[in-house]
Design brief:
The chain is an all-alpha fold. It is 77% helix and 0% strand.
Length: 323
């Protein structure tokens, strides 16, 4: 079975230029927006340090927005290509947690920062991975399927992985982490999917606004996280940035390599690259803040900015090669 070539779905009709421009604007503006939010949090941390308690609710807004975009067709796509989706799921939850542990160990990070880097690796796929896959002329259907499944299984996978890999640095309450992911990820996503099913025609009217709502919410999350660890950033920012760049870059490369090794075609392998290398850093920041400390959330805050910048750049390069 492992040697079979996965047959791609029939190619979708080319997206209209307006949709392409909208996607490019979103993927360009989003990292700038997050970067600006981080700068504000760093410059005036005292104004936002009391906002930490709102982090789980803000993440719930992002996850509910994701749920609103899901349709029965997305779940049908998973059933049509179980091998490819399973490969993406395994690659995601093996490569990124393993890289997080290796990088934290190799760089000799402090326990708080090491746990934060590992927690980023244990998170599900990033919410922007589907847009970046589209811009890279990748297999968007596979990207959506892997992102959806990795998010739905996160309550069962992320806590034990964090306990196994980050537990050597800090105490990890896997049970409490499971409950938090259930409340802030699974329940909002399922709730959004139910609302889309019941009131689809009303949801369709606001679909174009959902990416911007998510972008603004994630920017506020980064603002809160950065303001909570502003003092630490000046001492550790360079080292954490190096860890984030290595984590994301190796994840993108190994994700693509895993697809090619499994004999997926190039569009599907591009989807694998982004589904492995781009993380739900908002969830990682929320969990780090709740279970460790604001300092442990610093890697997730930097990852939130960097993986969108690198994802957009790699997508542009892949798109040119695809032509």
């Amino acid at each position: 079975m492992a040697t079979e070539r996965i047959s791609p779905e029939p190619p979708a009709a080319p997206a209209p230029p307006a949709a392409d421009r909208s996607a490019r604007v979103a993927v360009t503006v989003f990292p700038l927006l997050v970067l600006a939010a981080g700068a504000v949090g760093l410059a005036a941390p005292a104004h936002f340090t009391g906002w930490a308690s709102s982090v789980p609710y803000l993440l719930g807004v992002v996850m509910f927005s994701m749920g609103l975009t899901l349709t029965p067709r997305d779940f049908h796509a998973v059933a049509e290509r179980p091998w490819a989706v399973a490969l993406g799921l395994v690659a995601h939850y093996v490569i990124m947690p393993g890289l997080g542990w290796l990088i934290a160990t190799a760089l000799g990070l402090s326990p708080q920062l090491a746990a934060g880097v590992i927690l980023v690796g244990c998170a599900p796929s990033g919410t922007a991975s589907n847009v970046v896959t589209y811009l890279a002329r990748g297999d968007v259907a596979l990207s959506v399927s892997v992102a959806t499944v990795s998010t739905l299984v996160a309550p069962l996978v992320t806590p034990p992985l964090a306990l196994l890999l980050a537990g050597q640095y800090l105490d990890v309450d896997a049970g409490a982490m499971f409950t938090d992911i259930l409340k802030t990820v699974l329940v909002p996503v399922v709730g959004g999917a139910i609302v889309r099913t019941v009131a689809g025609r009303y949801v369709d009217r606001v679909l174009r606004a959902l990416p911007w709502l998510s972008a603004l919410t994630i920017a506020v999350l980064v603002l809160i996280v950065v303001s909570g660890s502003a003092a630490r950033i000046k001492d550790a920012a360079a080292l954490v940035f190096l860890a984030v760049v290595l984590h994301n870059g190796l994840g993108l490369a190994l994700g693509y390599a895993s697809g090619r090794a499994a004999r997926l075609d190039r569009p599907a392998s591009r989807a694998m690259a982004f589904e492995v290398g781009m993380q739900n850093s908002g969830l990682a920041a929320s969990l780090a803040t709740a279970h460790f400390s604001p300092a442990a959330a610093l890697p997730a805050a930097i990852f939130s900015v960097w993986h969108n910048v690198s994802g957009a750049a790699v997508a542009a390069w892949m798109s040119r090669r695809g032509r």
